Amino acid sequence: MKHLSAALLAALVTATPALAQEAGTITLGFGIGTVAPKDNNGALAGMDSSIGKNTRPILTLEYFVRDNIGIELLAAAPFKHDISLAGLGEIGSTKQLPPTLSVNWHIPTTSKFTPFVGLGVNYTKFFEEKSSLGTLQIRESFGLAATLGVDYAISEKAALRADIRYVDIDSDVLLNGTKIGKAEIDPLVASVSYVMKF
Q1: pTM of the full predicted structure?
Q2: Domain annotation for the chain: domains and CATH numbers
Q3: Burial class (CB in 10 A: 0-12, 13-18, 19+), 69
């Protein structure tokens, strides 16, 4: 009987449905995301550049066009990144907004965990560039974005989410109106969120 009770309890736990993702469902997520540019961000004025990481609040809104398939918009508070050049150290900074539109497939399971994968496009707008070397300008960027994540259902209407994204961000950089190279940022964006279903 003891073994039977344990088996029934295990069955109930594994049978607990994940956060249902039916067509017409909307989810809203609030969380924290860290943008971590890759190592070696390209040559600027003949010197290797390095762009620092930053953590800010993020927001996701997803509409399910079909069961388990959603269109998601990622937004965030402005990220601020320090810019360094080999031999000179920190020479400036910039802020950026990286809205990303993705199509996500939430893989159905019979547990509280629902993994998902996504593919989309990113638009990054740079602003408030500052540099000790002169007038710095970083051009806007369009690129692909890929997502891998998992939701953990804490109720029928809410889940905790962890995900990581790769974003292709390559931007022309100008100093005093002259192009000095291309910033190859290509960050990984790691985030955790609280997601609500409507």
Answers
A1: 0.86
A2: 2-197 (2.40.160.20)
A3: middle
